[in-house]
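Q: What changes when adenosine-5'-diphosphate is included in the input?
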Amino acid sequence: MLNLVLFGPPGAGKGTQSEKLIEKYQLVHISTGDLFRAHIKNQTPLGEQVSQLIAEGNLVPDSITIAMLEEEINKNPGAKGFIFDGFPRTVAQAEALDNFLATRGEQINTVLALDVSEEELTKRIAKRAEISGRADDAADKLKKRIEEYFSKTIHVLPYYEKSGKLHKVNGIGAIDTIFTELSSIVDGVVA
Ligand code: ADP
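A: The predicted holo structure follows.
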């Protein structure tokens, strides 16, 4: 199996690059943000539980997020591999993911971290807010999301650095240039 984590702050381009990686490597895409939005749209009990937190730009508690993620992995028994997008967002989530994969004799093969300055992120999301209709793209909510990233999520980087799995990639530039760089890292892991 090929299991990738695509890591980066809100607006780093994870969604765009995951689409391309999925196609190239035939992976199952697990985006916790997309999963939560689907629950909210379908008004499931989980969706009702998390909608306020997400709209305000807060992280959803680890226990809820981890349970949802494990359920999603279990739904795809035949997968060649997974691309995790927007997960893990805390060190506790990273540990839970490693433990869960280990019970199946699997592991994270590589972590691709998109590096984008805070200034560029704010610009990109302001633009996206005009079309996304996402309540959490509004300026004050975005500020909260970026804060959550720099206070909690950033600590996931040293966690993966220690195990030698972390690859940082410049997330500013042409989409295809960034994709070429990501692919060459993945090819290095697969080879
Ligand atoms: P972004 O576009 O900012 O990268 P996502 O679409 O990945 O955001 O997620 C949107 C929101 O869903 C987050 O701000 C957070 O509230 C919630 N969320 C998504 N993934 C996680 C996670 N792994 N842990 C906690 N909350 C999460």
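Observations recorded in class: Residues 90 and 152 are 6 Å apart (CA to CA).
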